[in-house]
């Protein structure tokens, strides 16, 4: 069976989004939105910019290794971040950055292919720094990326992970995502070991207004 690298995963820190209170979407060249998390931390949410390259590298290199196993590109390397930014420039990817005291502490992305048969499907990825997990930052990032996905005309969101990532699967299930497929030995990790791939999806138009944190 053909193997490939998995293309993204929702990592720890995503809380459940209340879509009845969708935020105003972020726009390019705007300063972003300032929020205060329940623990009192001040966060600025904004769209990713080219000047974020060094900050993104620092953020990625501080993540636990397990969080880096199944990303679309290796964002611990400059070339990987540059490819990510090219995807943003082409309109294939939209990324929201969370910044605190001048440092990136999390991000959320939605990526869509331009092929006719998949251009209405977006792949969601959320990464939150270890010190900002469990305090609502994942929920804020997810709310922004769902809004951007809807504005881009996406009809379905997909998430990919390994079956043993129970926390990520539980968070998606609370959002209404359902398992679409389990592919055995479909991906390989950084050490070349085969891993199963779990695919979950949800129709954006059908996301519940009654989901609570």
Molecular structure report:
The chain is an alpha+beta fold and 213 residues long. The chain has a single domain (19-206), classed as Gcn5-related N-acetyltransferase (GNAT) (Aminopeptidase, 3-Layer(aba) Sandwich), CATH 3.40.630.30. 22% of the residues lie in helices and 29% in strands. It has 4 helices and 8 strands. It has an 8-stranded mixed sheet, sandwiched between helices. α3 (137-151) links the parallel β5 (121-128) and β6 (156-161). It is globular and about 45 Å long. The N and C termini lie far apart (40 Å).
CATH class: Alpha Beta
Tally of individual helices: 4
What's the arrangement of strands in the largest beta sheet?
Answer: 1-2-3-4-5-6-8-7
Q: Assign the structural class, choosing from mainly alpha, mainly beta, alpha/beta, alpha+beta, or little secondary structure.
A: alpha+beta
Radius of gyration: 16 Å
Determine the CATH topology: Aminopeptidase
CATH architecture: 3-Layer(aba) Sandwich
Oligomeric nature of the chains: single chain
Largest beta-sheet details: 8 strands, mixed
The averaged pLDDT comes out at 79
Number of domains: 1
Low-confidence stretches: 1-22, 208-213
Report strand %: 25-35%
Features:
213 residues, alpha+beta, Aminopeptidase, eight-stranded mixed sheet, 8 strands, 29% strand, disordered N terminus, disordered C terminus
Task: Reconstruct the topology from this structure.
Layout: E1 33-36, E2 42-47, H1 53-61, H2 78-90, E3 93-100, E4 103-111, E5 121-128, H3 137-151, E6 156-161, H4 166-174, E7 178-188, E8 194-203
């Amino acid at each position: 069976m053909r193997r490939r690298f998995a293309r993204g995963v929702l990592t720890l820190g995503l809380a459940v989004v209340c879509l009845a209170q969708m935020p105003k979407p972020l726009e390019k060249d705007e300063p972003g939105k300032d929020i205060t998390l329940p623990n009192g931390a001040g966060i600025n949410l904004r769209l990713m910019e080219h000047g974020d390259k060094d900050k993104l590298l620092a953020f990625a290199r501080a993540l636990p290794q397990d969080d880096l196993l199944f990303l679309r590109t290796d964002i611990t390397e400059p070339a990987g971040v540059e490819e990510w930014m090219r995807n943003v420039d082409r309109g294939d990817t939209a990324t929201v950055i969370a910044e605190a005291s001048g440092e990136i502490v999390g991000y959320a992305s939605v990526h869509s292919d331009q092929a006719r048969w998949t251009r209405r499907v977006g792949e969601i990825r959320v990464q939150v720094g270890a010190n900002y997990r469990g305090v609502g930052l994942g929920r804020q990032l997810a709310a922004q990326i769902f809004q951007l996905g809807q504005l881009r005309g996406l009809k379905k969101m997909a998430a990919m992970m390994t079956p043993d990532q129970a926390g990520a699967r539980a968070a998606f299930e609370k959002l209404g995502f359902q398992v679409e497929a389990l592919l055995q030995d479909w991906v390989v990790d950084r050490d070349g070991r085969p891993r199963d791939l779990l695919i979950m999806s949800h129709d954006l138009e059908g996301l519940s207004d009654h989901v609570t944190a």
